[in-house]
Amino acid sequence: MTLAASPELERLEAARADVDRANALLNSPSVENVARCEALLESACSALEGIRSWAAVARGTPRAIGQAQNLQQAIRRAARALQIARDYHTQWCRTWALQTSGYSPQGEGPPPMRRGLLSLSG
């Protein structure tokens, strides 16, 4: 069986396709899309785990190298997109907590705090 018809190479290509689909979802990083990415990225990891021994043999093959490089780039894009989504949601949660903390049952906000070198309360 040639490398061109190798099921392992097809798994490598499928892993990249899964990561590409995850990247497409992360263009709009809603909670639902991030959750869908989990399954896609797990699928890609499973595919890669299944070809670990083959990868050592195919290391010098141009097509395998090309696919591995494409997969590596896709993974880097996914990592950056996940970090951006994480940072966005973390900042959103902080902002929401700051805006809603301290409100009385009547809907009155907390007194404004002045930021300076010294802040006393209580």
Write structural notes for this entry:
By secondary structure, this protein is mostly helical. The protein has one domain (3-99). The protein contains four helices and no strands. The chain has helices at residues 7-26, 31-50, 52-57, 62-100. Helix 1 packs antiparallel against helix 2 and helix 1 runs parallel beside helix 4. The longest helix has 39 residues, at 62-100. It is rod-shaped.
Could you write a compact summary of the structure shown?
Helices cover about 70% and strands about 0% of the residues. The chain is built from four helices and no strands.
Structure characteristics:
122 residues; mainly alpha; 70% helix; rod-shaped; 4 helices
The number of distinct structural domains comes to 1
Q: SSE order, as H and E?
A: HHHH
Q: Which percent band covers the strand fraction?
A: under 5%
Number of strands: 0
- The structure class reads mainly alpha
Please estimate the helix content: 55-70%
**Biggest sheet features:** none
Termini separation = 77 Å
Which overall shape is indicated by the principal axes computed on the Cα atoms?
rod-shaped
List the quaternary state of the chains: single chain
Low-confidence stretches: 116-122
Global Rg = 23 Å
Count the DSSP helices: 4
Write the topology of this structure.
Elements: H1 7-26, H2 31-50, H3 52-57, H4 62-100
Helix pairs in contact: 1-2, 1-4
